[in-house]
Each structure stands twice: as structure tokens, then as C-alpha cells.
Amino acid sequence: MINGAHVIIYSRDAEADRTFLRDVLGYPHVDTGGGWLIFKLPPAEVAVHPTDGAEKHELYLMCDNLEETITELTGKDVEFVRPAEDQGWGILTAIRLPGGGELGLYQPRHQTAHNL
Asked: Domain VOC: where (predicted)?
């Protein structure tokens, strides 16, 4: 039935963000024509959190060792928008995309579902 998920990042500079995903993060991709790249993402999982405010969706990349990942990405001139913070359930930071958006990055301390 359902065999995947398609995530869309809206950007003020889509070309720069596509280049970032391709060249900096090294994600494999297909070109659907005219430079319109669609990227293969790492395995994923979805969680549903309660809210009393407006409904929204967020995207976070996950890693096994945040300290090593920060070092590697800093070496590629990636900007971090805030220092890593221990949230209890994981260690969280965010990176700045070239188009101006933020992309969450964390090292989970909870059991993950993406390899089930």
C-alpha cells in the first residue's frame, strides 16, 4: 500500500538548498528535469505530538554522534543556528540552510523506529 513518504522543504533559494543537500550532505538524488532534484533521505520515522497551538510539521535529521557530525559539517562551512542542547530525550541543534531556513539535527537518546 504506502511505500514511502515525500518531504517538501519550501525555500527562498531552492537552488542553493538543493546544492547543499547534494554537495554538502551528499544525498543521492534523481533529476526529474531542468535541475529539479529529488533526494533520497536516510531511513525515517514519524511521531505525533499533542499541541494546544497551531498544528505544524517539523523535519529533523538524526545522527549517531552529534559532536562528530557537528565537527564534520563545520569543516564544510555549515552554519549552526544554536549550540547543541541536552533535551533529555536527545541532544538537539539546528543548521542554517543556504536559503535561510533551519533544519533540525539531533542525536536521539530514545529508542528509534527507523530500522524496524
From this structure: 3-108
CATH code of the domain covering residue 60: 3.10.180.10
Contact in structure between 93 and 85 (CB atoms under 8 Å) = yes
All three cell numbers of 32: 526529474
What confidence tens digit (pLDDT) does each residue in 55-113 have? 988 999 999 999 999 999 999 999 999 999 999 999 999 999 999 999 999 999 999 99
As for how many domains the chain has, the answer is: 1
Q: What are phi and psi of 19, to 5 degrees?
A: -60, -40
Number of other residues whose CB lies within 10 A of the CB of residue 13: 14
Contact 78/70 with Cβ under 8 angstroms?
no
Q: What is the C-alpha to C-alpha distance for residues 62 and 15, in angstroms, rounded to an integer?
A: 23
Please check whether residue 2 lies inside any domain of the structure.
no
Q: Is residue 41 part of a domain?
A: yes
Distance CA(87)–CA(60), nearest Å, equals 14
